[in-house]
Amino acid sequence: MFNELYRRLIDPFKRSIRNKLILTMTLVAVLPVIVITAVAAENARSSMEAEVMDTNRVNMNWASVYLAEQFTRMNNIIYSIQISDELHQYLALGQEAPASSRFDEQKAVFNMLNSVYYSAGNYVFGVELYLKEQDTLFTFNSMESRIKTVADIPQGYHKLFTEHKDFTIINDPVDPQKFHMTRSMNRFEDQAQIGAISLEIKWAEFNQTLELLDSRGDYTAYIGDSSGHPVYQPNSSIQPSDEALKQLSETKNNAGFIRTAQEYIFYHDIESTGLRVIKIVPDHVINESALETMKYGLVVGGVATVVSVALAALVAWRTSKPIVRLANSMKGIQLIKDRKVERSGRVDEIGLLEKNLHGMASRIREHIRDNYLMNLEKQTAELKALQSQIHPHFLQNTLQMIGGMVYSQKPADSYKVIRALSEMFRYIVRAPDGLVPLQSELDQLEHYMLIQKQRFATRLEYKLEITGELRACYIPKLSLQPIVENAFLHGLEKKPGEWKLGIEVLCDPQQGRVTIQICDNGMGMEPDRLVEMQSKLERITRYTDRVWNSGTSIGLLNAASRMVMHFGPDYGMRMESKLGQGTKVIVTIPCTTGGEPL
User: Fold this and answer.
1) Residue 97: helix, strand or coil by DSSP?
2) E-strand stretches of 393-471
3) What counts of helices (H) and strands (E) characterise the chain?
4) What is the distance between the alpha carbons of residues 15 and 3, in angstroms, rounded to a whole number?
5) How far is the C-alpha of 273 from the C-alpha of 279, rounded, in Å?
């Protein structure tokens, strides 16, 4: 099926130079447009990619600096609590200090936290101070303000103390829009953790910075941990891929760029926080510029393609028109019959070729006509010469037989022989020299066999069988009599005893041919002689050779040559023979010829 489809697609271009020219010129016109469009799209994409990368590297740098300053400002609030006199005086109290003193110092610490909370800004939701050795937790926010005694480490401080960290940032488990920034308090002498200070902060404090990184809305910027997982992400519609997270967790640099199959990842560490600011630029954003260029390129390319195809078709048509006309002129040239073919009148190479072609065709036609007439005249002369040789041959044999019959047989018998001889010579002299009806040739053979049966009445048995309608069948004149003569001359006359000669005619309209079999029970042929005769008959069929025998009768090979000359190599004669058993000659002619010589 594929081969058939391929053949149907290719055949129009194999058979027509016009189609080849149209296709070639279309490709020449269209391919540059396609290549230029593709190159322009790729250049636009590369330029957009370089611009995005350069811009985002700069933006990520200042964003990380600004975020670090914000975290530093929050750290300063914690440091201001950590170095406050109120806190140091409270920590300096021993266990033996009176309750009134402890109460006064706690109140002073509480007032200090109150002052810090209101001076920090509206992004701080609350302040906590946890003193591990005193088992005390100071809490101050917009909802409550209290001092609480705790036996265990409070929720949110475990990671700081169990992992001995100096600094943690943990999202609020209840409200993801807030986080707790906690810093450890260490004793100066042994750096042991004696407590911690925690600020409850709104993530919205960083929205302005992240929104500047995501100015188009097609990107996403977020604050993540060291492995790249989001800690705070205002726009969560775009998430980092697994491949991006894997590469981010493996990076050792504090700033850089990662390229995956789906996205561009820019990252920068936020100093002294253990966090990173990360920006994701989807791949389609980079390709948008290239797609726009390609879209306009396709529009321009489509218009250029239509114009190119039209121009290519026009140029190819005008270029190939004289060639096609010349090819059609060649189809119109008849080498046998004259046919007027209009000339284009061109004076270029095509016109010169056309002129020479017509001149060559005329010369070939004249040559064929001369050879045909010469061969026809030769064949006619040879046939007439051979026909003239029949007269003394039959005249001598038959007249001798009639002379004997006059004295020995009835007059009616002599009259039959004389009439048969008369009909034979009338057929030879008056019938046309080309094709004759097959029935006429069989009637001529009947007259010949009547004479032969009169000569060999006691020995000869003759039988004729006809199957089918023979009215439309024609055969070259005197084609069958030479075969029967050869049967007598080379087969029967040398054989003692009874002679048998049979002729069977079969007309098959479905196959369009007539088969005539002439069989005798004569001496037959030696194998070498049979091979020689078959070779000559095949040569006549293959090369349409004419082989004229010498002697006083029209030879078998002559009859075969005339059949091939009239009907073509598909028809003719072949032989079968066995030594001592007889010979069969099979003649094949077309069923209908119209009765006109070819």
Assistant:
1) coil
2) 435-437, 460-467
3) 14, 18
4) 17
5) 18
Of 595, 183, 552, which is closest to residue 392 (Cα–Cα)? 552
Here the tokens at position 110 are: 């509480």
Comparing CA positions, the residue from 70, 62, 60, 64 lying closest to residue 201 is 70
Residue 195 CA, chain-centre distance (Å), reads 78
Which amino acid is it at 161?
F
**Of 280, 290, 278, 264, the residue nearest 223 (C-alpha):** 278
Residue 138 is inside which H or E element, if any?
Answer: strand 136-141
Is 458 in a helix, a strand, or coil? coil
SS3 (DSSP) at 566? helix
Of 185, 163, 175, 168, nearest to 125 (Cα)?
175
CA distance 427 to 423: 6
DSSP state for residue 549 in the 8-state scheme: P
> Rounded to 5 degrees, what are φ and ψ at 172?
-65, 125
**Residue 382 contacts residue 565 (beta carbons within 8 Å):** no
DSSP for 530-550, written as a single string: HHHHHHHHHHHHHH----PPP
Cβ(301)–Cβ(33) below 8 Å: yes
Indicate the helix (H) or strand (E) that contains 504.
Answer: strand 499-508
Please, how many CA atoms are within 13 Å of residue 234, restricted to the half-sphere of its CB? 20
What are the b/e assignments for 307-346, b being 16+ CB within 10 Å? ebeeebeeebeeebebeebbeebeeebeeeeeeebeeeee
Residue 251, CB-side half-sphere exposure with 13 Å CA sphere = 24
In single-letter form, the type of residue at position 101 comes to S
Q: What pLDDT score does 551 carry?
A: 41
Angle between helices 411-430 and 349-408 (to 10 degrees): 170
Calpha distance 120→114 (Å, rounded): 10
CB 578 within 8 A of CB 524: yes
Helix%, strand%, coil% for the chain, nearest 5: 55, 20, 25
pLDDT mean for each 10 residues of the chain (598 residues)? 75 68 73 76 78 86 91 90 88 77 85 87 87 88 84 87 88 89 87 90 88 76 90 86 89 88 90 89 76 71 74 70 65 54 59 72 72 59 51 61 68 79 80 81 89 83 89 86 86 88 90 92 90 86 53 64 83 90 92 52
Query: What are 208's two structure tokens?
Result: 């302005």
Name the E strands within 233-315. Answer: 255-259, 263-270, 275-282
End-to-end CA distance of the chain: 45
DSSP state of 346: -
Let me know the angle formed at the C-alpha of 287 by 284 and 290, rounded to the nearest 5 degrees: 155
Q: Contact, 552 vs 589, CB < 8 A?
A: no
Bridge partners of 435, per DSSP, are 476
- Residues 538, 556: Cα–Cα separation, whole Å: 13
What are residue 260's phi and psi, to 5 degrees?
-115, 180
d(CA 223, CA 210): 9
**DSSP result, 573-594:** EEEEEETTTEEEEEEEEES--T
Please, which residues bridge with residue 183 across strands?
167, 197
279 near 219, Cβ under 8 Å? yes
CA nearest to 179, candidates 158, 206, 153 = 206
Q: What angle do CA 266, 278, 58 make, to 5 degrees?
A: 50
Residue 254 sits at φ, ψ, to 5 deg, of -80, -10
